[in-house]
Amino acid sequence: MDDSLSASFGHQLNDQLPRIQSIVHEQIEFVGDVRDYLKERAALERQYGASLQAIVKKAMDKQSRREQALSVGLEPSKQWSGATSTLDSAWSRILTEADEEASDHTNLADSLQNEVCEPLKSVEKRKEATCKKHLEYSNKLLSERDKLYNEKQKAKQRYDDACASVESSRVKQGQAKDEKHLEKASKTMDHNMNEMLSAKNSYLISISVANEVQRRFYRIDLPRLQDDFQSLWTLTTLKLVSLMKITARLSGKYLQSLFAHNDHFLTATNSISPTNDQELFIDYNRRPFSEPQDFQFEPCPIWHDSEDFSLNATEPKILLQNRLGQARLKAKELEPTIDTKRKEVSKLENLTKAYSQNESLGDSDSVLENFLDTVEQTTTLELQYTVLAKEIEVLEAALGDDQGSQRPHNFKSASFVTPTSCYLCNSSIWGITKQGVTCKACSIHAHVKCGPKVPANCPGSAPMHSNHSHLSSAMATASPSPNSQQTFSESQKEQSLSSLKRAATKANNVPPRQANLNRAATSVNSNRAIRSTHDEPNIPKANVIYAYEATSVHEVTVAVSEIVKVIGKDDGSGWIKVEKSDRKQGLVPISYIEIIQEAVVATTPSPSGRVNSIPPRIKKAKVLYDYEARDTDEHSISVGEVIRLTKDGENYGEGWFEIFKDGRNGIVPSNYVSLFIFYVLYFMQVTKTKTKTDETVLRKNIG
């Protein structure tokens, strides 16, 4: 195999597997031609000159017909100049010498039959079987690649179907005539939206996987397979050369009188070089080649979308977090197996070379078959690992630090003889036909379809990784307390039909700081009535909006509406350290609290001690970007313009604010403006002489 190192089909003949298979098949069939020739020659040795001359002529005719196919293939990339391979040239010379030796080869028949023809027959059969096995493997490789391509297309279809369902739900929601039907349509809309986002995420993953598999196919698997066919060609030719040398030796032993002819035969045989023949084939079969372009995300024609992962909704994000955990687990299981297989391939490759160079060591064909089987197994495992590695890379890039707790639930199939509530959707699981899953470590029950959507925060499972702390932020953000006030989801459910349409496309043009603005506005709204006369000036305080029960010594239990001191910094892990009024300290989910904003207080002493509250805030905003109204319910705004929000205008719908301008209410994108929110508490002396006019003027002055 050493003389084939200078030529490589995998690197020099890109994507020409069918032609390589054809030329290798020609090489193997040529073994049959040689065997036929020697068999007939052995029979005709007894007939001397005339009969031998007849079969030599027949072999010459075959060689003439196969000359181009044997040298440069049947479909060369340039005009064949008549250049022949060393094998073809040597064969021509051998036939010429055989024609001259016809009268001398009488007693050679038996030796040729037993020591050359029968081994050639065995070689032909084994090489044909090996070639057939290679062909089956190449078809399997193509099938696996096409299967992944089809998975990508199926993911695209599922995504399109999900988009169509969302559009259908949107139309039905617009046609709802009463609150009952509207609520049902809204729930259907939310469900279909989550399904669409999940389908999109799956589609994006399938695109990345298909691209990675495509690159691997054309850079690793296909070149390796072509090199394997090249090795088969080399071994077939070397085996043929070995048997032809035996023929030469027998001729010299049994026919001393024809020694001169035999020397010519041997010289011709020794001139055969698989490397030279393969380089000739390469020279006549060079073709331009470029790798196919990467697959790209194709948005649904009826749903405006981008190729960004959908992480705003909780359910699709949890699905991605769980998928990341599963991919890491499977990849970790594959790594030692692949490492072992690679070492085995390396050992078998050295063994194959040794056996091919010294046949006295044993059966080189068996060693080669074992080597090729191991290579195929390794390639299959590497392909699986490539898919998992790409999934992990894509998911880690998409999720960033928000990868969830990575404490997977150990769900097992279960049947429930009594109605049991699903942990995720709260609907019942009951009966043989409605199978569910159960995590015994944390006693969670869920539907089979809901299981992958449950956050991986099982207290009985060790975390698979720890990027920032002992817990990940998904545990805090994915599953708030069932009894907590769902202020954000309720406002989202109240959004109008047009708001839903725009919310689906807002991710394409949201300025980076909008999330901070919205979070600040929401925090001020929920905390404007919370003040304490004993606050320490340098320690921020927070209001607990969801109750949380500690699950470890590092955490602390808090109750709804409890005021705590924030004594730790937000390190991005999803957890923050607080101190309670009883001096107990510990971690709580950062999403379960809201920082209390400092209020600007203007006070006037009041003898009676009464406080007369004026509208607590001036709801205005400054325009950051120009926006042209697209519908009749929208307003056009310009950069630098100061606009005034309506009552609860910031809660109009996800991604939109309602403002008052030009004598009417209208909506604008929330990410195009920056809120001005001022809390002003006026403590004024209320006397009997205070008039209604004074209060009216004061209200007007503060907006």
TrEMBL record:
Renumbered residue ranges of the record's region Disordered: 461-535
SMART domains: C1, FCH, SH3
GO molecular function annotation: metal ion binding
UniProt keyword list: Coiled coil, Membrane, Metal-binding, SH3 domain, Transmembrane, Transmembrane helix, Zinc
Family annotation (SUPFAM superfamilies): BAR/IMD domain-like, Cysteine-rich domain, SH3-domain
Domain SH3, residue spans: 537-598, 616-678
Gene Ontology CC terms, in alphabetical order: cortical actin cytoskeleton
Gene3D superfamilies: 3.30.60.20, Arfaptin homology (AH) domain/BAR domain (1.20.1270.60), SH3 Domains (2.30.30.40)
Functional note: Plays a role in endocytosis and trafficking to the vacuole. Functions with type I myosins to restore polarity of the actin cytoskeleton after NaCl stress.
Annotated protein name in UniProt: Protein BZZ1
Organism field: Phakopsora pachyrhizi
